[in-house]
Amino acid sequence: MAKPNTFVCSSCGASFSKWSGRCEACGEWNTISEETPLSAGPSSKSLGAKRGRPVTLTDLSTQETPPPRATSGLDELDRVLGGGLVAGSAILVGGDPGIGKSTLLLQAAAAFARKGLKTVYVSGEEATAQVRLRAQRLGLAEAPVRLAAETNLRNILTTLEAEKPQLVIIDSIQTMWADNVDSAPGSVTQVRATAHELTTFAKRHNVSVIMVGHVTKEGQIAGPRVVEHMVDTVLYFEGERGHQFRILRAVKNRFGPADEIGVFEMTGSGLAEVLNPSALFLSERGQPAAGSVVFAGIEGTRPVLVELQALVAPSPHSQPRRAVVGWDGARLSMILAVLEARCGIPFAGLDVYLNVAGGLKISEPAADLAVAAALLSAREDAALPPETVVFGEISLSGALRPASQTENRLKEARKLGFTAAIAPAGGKIGSGGGLALTRPADLTEFVGEIFGAG
């Protein structure tokens, strides 16, 4: 007897016996869709040489050891991948429409092919002539990349088994269609089934597979969340339409550090690498102004200097506005509450706007002190010294906690010409990188020393 159909939430993956408008597990609306059972179960062929039988780690033969990483020559891409492409890895790349995912991967395919990797680029959204036209515009017409336009997964896997490539790029996973699944392309069932087949193919044949995934309006990769658990690496391609900067961020990487970033600049001839992101993010910084503070942050393994901009103005409304771009809005509310409760500096009746210049998104708590400095500078209309960097974490008690990798932050600031730094007391500083250090113990001391308030 056939199995009854189930209904699955595309947001959290919970399953139900009947359809409803609201998911009882996560509370999201209109995310439940019908899922039909697979017509065939998973293949019985094992991924390992021992057909699933456990072996001792020391008994693994050298033939089963994967080859060293393959580098593309694009330093920013290799950095995010953890030093290069691992054979047999499955990589998922997500990003907003039009942000440059296809451009980045076509350039990466050409770079890997020129390094000697047999590369196949499979497009489910464009014809081969359209892909070739984009390659000509990017100056990649002579790259030894094999192109294919297909959406049927069975045909794709059959072709790949005959071609025996080393790198396969699938653009995109939402357009792939498995004929053993009775649902439309892009549905939860199809995305999960095709991602599973491609990931299994990568492990079984020792082929690296890069899959492009579209994102929802919330910024998450469309489809079931289990797809991100299947693959080895999840990359997000971020950026603002009004900026030429693009950030490739690793949110999961089994073969390298997570939260690593690579910075690219969108030009007329494609994406260009930015080897010194700090200089780029600060290149448009003008004369010292109230509300402008330079934050020395850490993204993955590299230090990055970025400008934080704050604006505080009287509010004509009964509910003051709090607008944040590039930072956590809840954390901004926490900083405002600590400033009022511990330092007696009210922001009631004032609109507060905070922006991270350059389109970068900051998530580390070490930006707390820089945000507080920008808010106080904007409120008091007093600019900080232009050659000063600020970093440190603020606790709810008003105490300041030292940030990790302090020496790397100070060295990066010194390299870009900064002469002073404000960082919490405590923690390993070393020589300070030759900068004049101000090290307050708590937020009240910081306000008193920098802005002359009690």
TrEMBL record:
Pfam families in the record, alphabetically?
AAA_25 (PF13481), ChlI (PF13541), Zn_ribbon_LapB (PF18073)
Q: Which one of the record's GO molecular function terms can you name?
A: zinc ion binding
According to the UniProt entry, where does the motif RadA KNRFG motif sit in this chain? 252-256
Q: Which InterPro entries match?
A: AAA+_ATPase (IPR003593), DNA_repair_RadA (IPR004504), P-loop_NTPase (IPR027417), RecA_ATP-bd (IPR020588), Ribosomal_Su5_D2-typ_SF (IPR020568), Ribsml_uS5_D2-typ_fold_subgr (IPR014721), Rubredoxin_2 (IPR041166)
Q: Does the keyword ATP-binding apply?
A: yes
Region entry Lon-protease-like, spans: 351-454
Positions binding ATP in this chain are G95, D96, P97, G98, I99, G100, K101, S102
Q: What keywords tag this UniProt record?
A: ATP-binding, DNA damage, DNA repair, DNA-binding, Hydrolase, Metal-binding, Nucleotide-binding, Stress response, Zinc, Zinc-finger
Q: Which GO terms describe its cellular component?
A: cytosol
According to the UniProt record, where is the region Disordered?
Answer: 34-71
User: From which residue to which does any coiled coil extend?
Assistant: none
Q: Any one Gene Ontology biological process term?
A: recombinational repair
Q: Where is the RecA family profile domain?
A: 66-215
Q: Quote the biased-composition stretches of kind Polar residues, using this chain's numbering.
A: 34-46
Classification via CDD domains: RadA_SMS_N (cd01121)
Q: Which NCBIfam families match?
A: sms
Note the HAMAP family from the entry: RadA_bact
Q: What is known of its domains?
A: The middle region has homology to RecA with ATPase motifs including the RadA KNRFG motif, while the C-terminus is homologous to Lon protease.
What is the similarity comment for this entry?
Belongs to the RecA family. RadA subfamily.
What this protein is reported to do is described as: Plays a role in repairing double-strand DNA breaks, probably involving stabilizing or processing branched DNA or blocked replication forks. DNA-dependent ATPase involved in processing of recombination intermediates, plays a role in repairing DNA breaks. Stimulates the branch migration of RecA-mediated strand transfer reactions, allowing the 3' invading strand to extend heteroduplex DNA faster. Binds ssDNA in the presence of ADP but not other nucleotides, has ATPase activity that is stimulated by ssDNA and various branched DNA structures, but inhibited by SSB. Does not have RecA's homology-searching function.
Q: What is this protein called?
A: DNA repair protein RadA
| Record gene name | radA
